[in-house]
Design goal:
- The structure holds 2 protein chains of 2 kinds.
- By secondary structure, chain A is of the alpha+beta class.
- Helix content of chain A is 36%, strand content 17%.
- Among the domains of chain A are: 3-58, Arc Repressor Mutant, subunit A, CATH 1.10.10; 163-266, Immunoglobulin-like, CATH 2.60.40.
- In chain A, the strands form 2 sheets. Chain A has a 4-stranded antiparallel beta sheet with strand order 1-2-3-6, covered by helices on one side. A 4-stranded antiparallel beta sheet of chain A has the order 5-4-7-8, with no helix packed on it.
- Chain B folds into 2 domains: 1-112, Rna Polymerase Sigma Factor, Chain: A; 114-180, Winged helix-like DNA-binding domain superfamily/Winged helix DNA-binding domain (Arc Repressor Mutant, subunit A, Orthogonal Bundle), CATH 1.10.10.10.
- Chain B is built from 8 helices and no strands.
- Chain B has helices at residues 3-11, 15-37, 40-57, 68-96, 117-127, 131-141, 147-154, 158-176.
- The longest helix of chain B is centred in the middle third of the chain and has 29 residues, at 68-96.
- The chains are: A alpha+beta, B mainly alpha.
- Chains A and B meet through helix 2, helix 4, helix 5, helix 6 and helix 7 of A and helix 1, helix 2, helix 3, helix 4 and helix 5 of B.
């Protein structure tokens, strides 16, 4: 190892405490995490320092507002979970005793090093929670696509953060589902569908807003299971419906809905 | 049940276990985010993101690498710091552009804390650090400054700040050791 290498390693070691305190800039954080993967000594040190830092967290505990609990638990009901990060590790089983058996060998394989904090999604995490598919980012995606997804993720996060955000969902016996997180005050909703499959012959799934004494209003076409964000919703709206329509969509529904969802429980329809 | 066991059940999709986990960790998560982010509306947003992320990413938790609570609070801290830094960057941008930055009235939430044994203990242990150790640790952890920013604020060389942070945490560990 050259003198310069040693010097650089020592410099990286000295970042352990700032890292544990989250006091590195993003680029430095990434560099340090790369170093951590190959450095047994510093990964032990970082773990100890992180435990120390967490003690500082405990002293700030304060009761969370009740409304936060409602919102989080409502969102959890319609939010799919990420799979375990590594195929070699069994997904934790339903019973905790089995799961414990699963992790024992993992612990024995100690030198398998990962950064202490596996990077989790992005800062717009709340958005991703609505539908994981949104963040199933492929390497082939263009910058534009990523930007568009990020913009949509922001919109979704915005709906989720509304003080009156509520969620509801329906699933029929064939497993076709529709879910919504909506805010009546923001007049916005995030709508997701699942289990609808891809219609044949280039046809599409179109989302409609149903209002009393008015024609259905198109809210857009679904692209697979990517969620749709609907703006400027009439608070008199009573339900959502999804129909199969010809390529490009229709001005008015031409088929019976495949799934429907009442909006009363999310604060619409007054 | 302990957070570690609950988190494993949550990773398997158990919503009841999540509710129980929420009961255990929402206070620490919310309090920590509030301490770092300060703005009440943003605090709720970030706390909600973090708590939902627990549900979504529970399978990423590796019990072999530390306790569930430590994983959860590390995640909460990371998200809170990211938020406060981007908010600061935006404020600086606005000021550079000559616009008057709009500051919501911050209530000094951090100070209206309810007395708890752990809180009292941590405060006492922080008091035992040297002033530079204490400031280096708290400016980074509670206020979300990078160590470069801490060095600037305290007019210290970078190397000194890194050392103060490490020594500060080590002394804190010694002092808090008996409190667990």
């Amino acid at each position: 190892m050259s003198f310069l290498d040693r010097l650089m390693r020592r410099d990286l070691h000295s970042l352990a405490a700032p890292y544990a305190l989250d006091a590195l800039e993003p680029e430095e954080r990434r560099r340090f995490e790369r170093h951590l993967r190959g450095c047994v000594r510093c990964s032990a040190e970082v773990r100890a320092l992180t435990e120390d830092a967490v003690r500082l967290a405990w002293s700030t505990a304060a009761p969370a507002p009740a409304v936060l609990r409602e919102r989080v638990l409502a969102a959890v009901r319609t939010t799919p979970q990420d799979p375990a990060p590594q195929p070699s590790r069994a997904r934790p089983a339903q019973s905790s005793s089995r799961a414990r058996d699963d992790w024992q060998p993992a612990r024995a394989r100690a030198p398998r090093l990962r950064p202490l904090m596996a990077p989790l999604a992005t800062a717009t995490a709340a958005a991703a929670l609505v539908v994981a598919s949104l963040f199933a980012v492929q390497a082939t995606q263009t910058r534009d696509e990523l930007d568009r997804e990020r913009a949509q993720a922001r919109e979704i996060a915005h709906v989720l953060a509304a003080p009156d955000a509520r969620a509801t969902s329906e699933r029929d016996a064939q497993g076709r589902g529709i879910g919504v997180v909506a805010s009546a005050s923001e007049r916005r909703a995030v709508v997701t569908v699942s289990g609808l499959g891809t219609p044949s012959g280039g046809r599409v799934h179109q989302l409609w807003l149903m209002r009393p004494n008015e024609n259905p209003l198109s809210l857009g076409l679904f692209d697979g299971d990517t969620p749709l964000v609907a703006d400027d919703l009439s608070t008199r709206a009573t339900s959502l419906a999804v129909t199969v329509e010809p390529h490009g969509g229709s001005a008015q529904p031409t088929t019976q809905p495949v799934v429907q969802l009442a909006l009363e429980s999310v604060g619409f329809g007054e | 049940m302990e957070a570690d066991e609950l988190l494993v059940l949550v990773a398997g999709g158990d919503q009841k276990a999540f509710e129980e986990l929420y009961g255990l960790v929402s206070g620490p998560v919310f309090g920590l985010v509030r301490r770092v982010v300060r703005d009440p509306a943003q605090t709720e947003e970030v706390a909600q993101e973090v708590l939902l992320e627990l549900w979504r990413s529970a399978a990423r938790f590796d019990p072999g690498r530390g306790s569930a609570l430590s994983w959860i609070l590390t995640l909460a801290h990371r998200r809170a710091v990211d938020r406060v830094r981007s908010a600061r960057a935006a404020t600086e941008r606005e000021q550079r552009e000559g616009r008057r930055a709009h500051h919501p009235a911050f209530d000094q939430v951090a100070e209206e804390v309810e007395a708890g044994l752990e809180r009292e203990w941590v405060r006492r242990c922080l008091d035992r650090l040297t002033s530079l150790q204490r400031q280096s640790v708290t400016l980074a952890y509670y206020d979300g400054y990078t160590y470069r920013e801490v060095a600037e604020r305290l007019s210290l060389p970078l190397g000194t700040v890194k050392t103060r942070m490490r020594d500060g945490l080590a002394r804190l560990r010694e002092c808090l050791g008996g409190a667990a």
